[in-house]
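#struct-help
A.M.: can someone run this one for me? Single chain, 683 residues.
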Amino acid sequence: MSFYALRDGIAVVTLNHPPVNSLSHVLRNFIVQALDAAEADPDVRGIVLTGNDKAFSAGADVAELGAPTQFAEPILLTVLARLAACRIPVVAAMGGVALGGGLELAMTCHGRVALASAKVGLPEINLGLIPGSTGTQLLPRLVGVPKALGMMLTGQPQTAQVWADSGLFDRVVTEDVVSAACALARQLAESGAMPIGTRGRTLDTAAVAEQVAAERDKLNARQRLQPAYGTLMDAVAGCALPFAEGAKRERELFLQLVPSHAAQALRHQLKAEREASRLPPDVQAEPRPVQTVAVIGVGTMGAGIAICALDAGLNVLLLEQNDAALTRGEQRVAEHYGGRVAAGKMKPAAAEAAQARLAPTTDWTQLARADLVIEAVFEDLAVKQDVFRQIDAHARPGAVLATNTSYLDVDQIANATQRPQDVLGLHFFSPANVMKLIEVVRGARTAPDVLATGMALGKALKKLPVLSGNAFGFIGNRIYNAYRNQCECMLEDGAWPEDVDNALTGMGFAMGPFAVADLSGLDIAWRMRKAQAATRDPRVRYVNVLDQLCEQGRLGRKTGAGYYRYTEGKAAKTTDTSVRGIIEQASAARGITRQPLSAEQIRRRALLAMVNEAALLFAEGVAARATDIDVVLVQGYGFPRWEGGPVFWARQQDRAAMARDLQTMASESGFGFRLGNLGKLLA
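D.P.: on it. Structure tokens below:
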């Protein structure tokens, strides 16, 4: 419950709407009533507006989006107008986060005091929006256009200490922010004149235009694909106008963005991410406690996993097969922390404390110390089964046993132990200490509390855990495999690799499939294809372009050539005659007369391949929710976040047209192509 109290002539208005003081209709109404009460009290000389220890206010109440109360008066703009018109000084005391509308509320006050540790930001760009309650007009008037756009373009919160000398705050303190705010309120009251307030500040018209133009020129290709970035520039340009005119223009632009495809997609993705981290009701349980994690295999992936666990404050046991391999693994971890310190991103004491929790060993009996064991060895079933026999012999009873596999059968790995109920998959994405996604793979006999432990560990590592069933490639790699296969078919049909890559990056994908293949190394896929050759049905349409490239020694970036040639690490813009010759031979061998494909044709075929495979795996129960598929593709595979994911994309399409196009794709893809049930996926 929010409350109002007097402190030596200062009305202290405390916002308390757990968990983060989101500006719901109830809280907005309370603020207006509190301002009215303070102004009506002759003993009140000033007002301090504050929150709880966690938050001043985290901004709009997401739960209100689309609800009748979202635009019920007083809306936030009304609250801010009432605050700006207050006849006695109002000071914001910010002890926790102040984001979005919360920061707009603070900036409208006549003064601002913040704890150095408080975090501030305007994150609306991450939802495909711009600040909609005068933020684009207030912030530039306080800190200048370049700094204001810096905050709004990233959308990332920063500590008040970072902004201490920017003009955003009157004071930044290390303790008792409310007392400091009360002192400022008294000082303002005793000055005898009301402060001008942020709204009354003016900026030079020519300077604003020049600064906005310079920042607009810096937008990258992916930002230019999202309407909110250009719209933000248009709104900030309005701060050269009188405040009321600039605020009106901002509101018009904000309301235009709210129903946009990108904004809807980003809201969808945010909601999907929140739901993905929750286990379905049938497997909900209390997680097992985890304080010590063992990582077996300290190559690039294992070292990344170890770093994640160390950063989360866990004790980490590193296990390798010999001293040389163990030393290399230790060096990887040490180099990471050394680099962080050198870059100023981590204090030396914090890096030392993290590495102090690291215990390297070649002694398998040390596994008895671990609450959770993660195997991260070579992606080979026989090798992993052998490792799990060793784990089974040495891990303590009740320890959670996890395999970091991308494609292999978790049940076959679990069956190498006497305790399959304790085994699950934890598919980290590379680099493990950077990528947020973890697929938590449920085996046939995985216990619910083991799944709960996997999900809890993902959250502790500050990642997005998504539950997956145990099927080839799980969710992400299975869909990516279908997508890549269709892109390879397009090579035979008439596209060049750069046509496909450019079409997809032109839509917003981080990279195209052939650039990704070169980056990963073509030999990885080649090795898997050779292993599957004996069981591959000869009737299946199989594109052998990648095989041909590998046989010529073109393994990707690491050999200087793959689909593309590389000079000093930079890819050629087009494929060379050797690659085109291999592709043309593949087309001729299949009897295809090559026809150029437009960017739109390429994008549609690639997306439909994803959607069709998503429908298949969702019907099989591999994904617990259709929206989980979108989270995996966005977080792990570079799918443009502002397109929402393949399921969201499909829900925006004409169903009959999609069905027709998938039928065409099935006939062109030939034997083995299965059509999924779109109705169930898109329901």
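A.M.: thanks! The mean pLDDT is 95.
D.P.: also worth noting: The CA atoms of residues 25 and 68 lie 10 Å apart.
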